[in-house]
Design goal:
Layout (H helix, E strand, L loop, with lengths): L1 H16 L4 E3 L17 E8 L7 E2 L9 E4 L3 H15 L3 E3 L5 E13 L8 E14 L2 E14 L6 H20 L2 H8 L2
Parallel strand pairs: 1-4, 2-5, 2-6
Antiparallel strand pairs: 3-4, 6-7, 7-8
């Protein structure tokens, strides 16, 4: 009986370390404090995914190379929706026309990492973006980074990873939209 229990325990333990790939839905939100005054102007938006790899990272565990985290939806489109909403919250009008001011967002990095080894005790996420706004020959450029480190008792579920990824993206977007230099540039449009 002890032999069977030992085999069963070993099977359960090794199965717990083998993690399957995850597809997460990215839907970040920008949460801004209202600016002192409404920024009035019209702008078009474009989002570029400039990451080298479209995988966010791996979930770790025994078979760390086989359990990639990817997105189920169109990441640039999800980011563009958040950017458009953020610009509208600032008081701007977002248009499809590229004749006027252009707001360009570049996603340079979005990484998901766990420590090496069989047990996942922590998740590290990092997002890096660039914002370029062009208007009447003038150009604004800004780079923004956000990092999150989360201690976890076990490997995060799909829902938890989705929450963490959306949180790091929302935070990096908040940093960009809270930049007073960017707001001042937008106010001159």
């Amino acid at each position: 009986m002890k032999k069977y229990l030992a085999i069963l325990f070993a099977s359960l333990l090794s199965a717990g370390c083998a993690l399957s790939p995850q597809d997460v839905e990215v839907n970040p939100r920008i949460t801004l404090e209202q600016p002192q005054e409404v920024i009035d102007g019209t702008v078009s938006t474009t989002v570029y995914d400039d990451r080298i790899s479209k995988s966010l990272g791996n979930r770790g565990g025994v078979y760390g190379d086989t359990n990639a985290i990817t997105t189920t939806n169109n990441l640039p489109l999800s980011l563009r929706s958040a950017v458009d909403l953020g610009l509208r919250e600032l008081g701007m009008t977002v248009t499809e026309s590229e004749d006027g001011a252009q707001f360009q967002l570049y996603l340079d990095e979005l990484e998901y990492r766990v420590p090496e080894g069989n047990y996942i005790t922590q998740v590290d996420l990092m997002a890096k973006i660039r914002v370029v706004v062009v208007n009447n020959g003038k150009r604004f450029k800004g780079s923004y980074t956000s990092s999150i480190q989360e201690r976890v008792p076990t490997a995060p579920s799909d829902k938890k990873n989705e929450e963490l990824i959306n949180r790091v993206l929302g935070d990096v977007l908040d940093r960009a939209f809270s930049d007073s230099e960017l707001q001042n540039f937008l106010a001159d449009i």
